[in-house]
From TrEMBL:
Residues 77-247 form the Tr-type G domain. One of the essential components for the initiation of protein synthesis. Protects formylmethionyl-tRNA from spontaneous hydrolysis and promotes its binding to the 30S ribosomal subunits. Also involved in the hydrolysis of GTP during the formation of the 70S ribosomal complex. It comes from Sphingopyxis indica. This is Translation initiation factor IF-2. GTP binds at residues 86-93, 133-137, 187-190. The chain holds residues 268 to 637 of 845 of the full protein. Belongs to the TRAFAC class translation factor GTPase superfamily. Classic translation factor GTPase family. IF-2 subfamily. It is found in: Cytoplasm.
């Protein structure tokens, strides 16, 4: 049977816990705010206080965001979200840095890019690309394991002087499993001993057939160090994105995914949210994983405060009640009561799961009995 603490019930009714305790006392029950009462007693109290009883099923309480689908006519083009993968030392970090430097916007403003876990690059032709700043397949698979498949396109970095390595193959497999199209960036072409053609040939063994070999996977020879052909790589991404016709509805309550989250000494809990659809605005009330909150400030990848963030835009969100986990979903809801209700429900669920999974040490039990 369902139970609820007196305090939680008071919160949901927007009444004082002490008043509920008093009412319970009149009903002949001696309980404190932290004690639980059963459903019948709770319902009695709710009517006693003149509130309406609303039975919420588990599915109702949790937000089923997959179920409300946007009308096709509401969809507008959005920037692709790109993840860079590949073997260690093949140049993932260098490429991310080089591409960030290729951002014409940052160049114009002379701005310093902030590390917020993701950033956007505006190419010369005006097209915008979002890069997830978490190189490597680990972050990618972790997010995916949490049901957050945010990547639209994977850039597979292969060093031209080193070729296909174990993590190259792993990256290929992860991208394939996620159904994410690959663009091959053959890096370090400035080096002696660079052999891009051999990379293309060896990729055939892993069913990556690049255009030069008669397939449809784009490949671009680059040098992250010498900043060669970065614009070609951006063009290839823009082309791939065009083929995919990536769209989202910007005119609705926002929904996003946590890319990174931390407890900041000065600012409290901070999360980088990649907006998936809708527009996130300052003042919005939301649920984020098992946390609730209200957007106090939004900060973009240039460290600038912004008033809102639309689809595919990464922003730092201030105003969380606690630190969520990477891969969690942020959903804007109608009011704070609703946000708290959903967050409380999710915290309860998480606790139940942890308790169920908690390993029981037999050894400890026996010594306790002895
Ligand atoms: P990651 O492990 O994939 O992130 O690789 P890094 O970006 O850390 O690069 C590993 C090493 O390769 C560093 O010493 C880089 O300076 C070097 N490197 C990266 N890209 C290039 C390139 O295009 N040309 C050359 N010559 N060296 C590169
Ligand atoms: Mg690195």
């Amino acid at each position: 049977p369902d139970t609820i603490t007196v305090q939680e019930l008071a919160n949901r009714m927007a009444e004082k816990g002490a008043d509920l305790v008093k009412a319970l006392f009149k009903m002949g029950m001696m309980v404190t705010v932290n004690q639980t009462i059963d459903q019948d007693t709770a319902e009695l109290l709710v009517t006693e206080f003149g509130h309406e009883i609303k039975r919420v099923s588990e599915a109702d309480v949790d937000i089923r965001h997959d179920e409300d689908v946007d009308a096709p006519e509401a969809l507008k083009p959005r920037a692709p979200v790109v993840t860079i993968m590949g073997h260690v030392d093949h140049g993932k970090t260098s490429l991310l840095d080089a591409l960030r430097g290729a951002n014409v916007q940052a160049g114009e403003a002379g701005g310093i890019t902030q590390h917020i876990g993701a950033y956007q690059v505006k190419a010369k032709d005006g097209s915008v690309i979002t890069f997830l700043d978490t190189p490597g397949h680990e972050a990618f698979t972790e997010m995916r394991a949490r049901g957050a498949n945010v990547t639209d396109i994977a850039i597979l970095v292969v060093a031209a002087d080193d070729g296909i390595k174990p993590q190259t193959i792993e990256s290929i497999n992860h991208a394939k499993a996620a159904g994410v199209p690959i663009i091959v960036a053959i890096n370090k072409i400035d080096k002696d001993g660079a052999n891009p053609q051999r990379v293309r040939e060896r990729l055939l063994e892993h069913e990556i057939i690049v255009e030069a070999m008669g397939g449809d996977v784009q490949d671009v020879e680059v040098s992250a160090l010498k900043k060669l052909n970065l614009d070609k790589l951006l063009d290839a991404i823009a082309l791939q994105a065009e083929i995919m016709e990536l769209k989202a509805n910007p005119d609705r309550n926002a929904e996003g995914t946590v890319v990174e989250a931390k407890l900041d000494k000065g600012r409290g809990p901070v999360a980088t949210i990649l907006v998936r659809r809708g527009t996130l605005k300052v003042g919005d009330v939301f649920v984020c994983g098992a946390e609730s909150g209200r957007v106090r400030a939004l900060i973009d990848d240039q460290g600038k405060q912004v008033k809102s963030a639309g689809p595919s835009m990464p922003v730092e969100v201030l105003g969380l009640g606690g630190v969520p986990m990477a891969g969690d979903t942020l959903t804007v809801v109608e009011n704070e009561a609703r946000a708290r209700e959903v967050a409380a429900y999710r915290q309860e669920q998480a606790l139940k799961k942890r308790t169920a999974q908690a390993p029981v040490s037999l050894e400890g039990m026996f010594s306790a009995l002895a």
